[in-house]
TrEMBL record:
<dbReference type="GO" id="GO:0016301">
    <property type="term" value="F:kinase activity"/>
</dbReference>
<dbReference type="InterPro" id="IPR008144">
    <property type="entry name" value="Guanylate_kin-like_dom"/>
</dbReference>
<dbReference type="InterPro" id="IPR027417">
    <property type="entry name" value="P-loop_NTPase"/>
</dbReference>
<protein>
    <recommendedName>
        <fullName>Guanylate kinase-like domain-containing protein</fullName>
    </recommendedName>
</protein>
<dbReference type="InterPro" id="IPR008145">
    <property type="entry name" value="GK/Ca_channel_bsu"/>
</dbReference>
<feature type="domain" description="Guanylate kinase-like">
    <location>
        <begin position="4"/>
        <end position="182"/>
    </location>
</feature>
<dbReference type="Pfam" id="PF00625">
    <property type="entry name" value="Guanylate_kin"/>
</dbReference>
Length: 189
């Protein structure tokens, strides 16, 4: 690949974005083309269910003011930042995949016009069960309620470049995304 491709992975909390991505990475050959997944900076304490770099709100603001992020967003009372390294990876011809909030897609498209949006779709009932089972928040917690309400309202994303159904066997969703990624590698060679 001469130029890299940026894929933004979106979907409701509990849709399985990280599970799909981890499965892709564990079986991807670097000989095809490297896939890079930047660790996001998030203003919350570390948690075993998601790899990220924990920073304080004050540290986040300082980093943002020092232009250390390519993309940022604020959701569920948390700040998220994607480090600038993604721009270098794209210039080196790598595939870059980032789990982001759908709220930043219009801004991201202005910065990276060729990006592709991957929407991971899961029926609300499955989403609710997954949010409960991962245990990040108690069910009476305000953040839990916000995630559930947002999932109920956002069951579709018509502007996605591809929709991956992750309501059944994880491997089916993984294969769908893998085939989609491979179609870009083949086009670029």
């Amino acid at each position: 690949m001469k130029n890299g491709v940026l894929f933004l992975l979106i979907g409701n909390s509990g849709s399985g974005k990280d599970s799909i991505l981890n499965a892709i990475l564990s079986n991807w050959s670097e000989e095809i083309t490297p896939i890079k997944v930047p660790k996001r900076y998030i203003t919350r304490p570390s948690h075993k269910t998601e790899p990220f770099l924990s920073v304080t709100p004050k540290e986040f603001i300082k980093m943002k003011n020092n232009n250390r992020f390519s993309l940022t967003w604020h959701i569920y009372d948390l700040d998220y930042g994607v480090p600038k390294i993604v721009e270098q990876w794209l210039s080196e011809g790598k595939i870059v995949i980032i789990n982001v909030s759908r709220t930043i897609i219009p801004h991201a498209r202005r910065l990276f016009p060729e990006l592709k949006v991957v929407f991971v779709k899961v029926p609300f009932e499955i989403t609710l069960a997954r949010i409960k089972s991962r245990g990040r928040e108690a069910e009476n917690d305000e953040m839990f309620k916000l995630r559930v309400n947002r999932a109920k309202k956002n069951q579709n994303y018509p502007d996605a470049d591809i929709i991956i159904d992750n309501s059944g066997d994880l491997q089916i969703a993984v294969n769908s995304l893998r085939n989609y990624l491979l179609s870009f590698v083949q086009k670029s060679e």
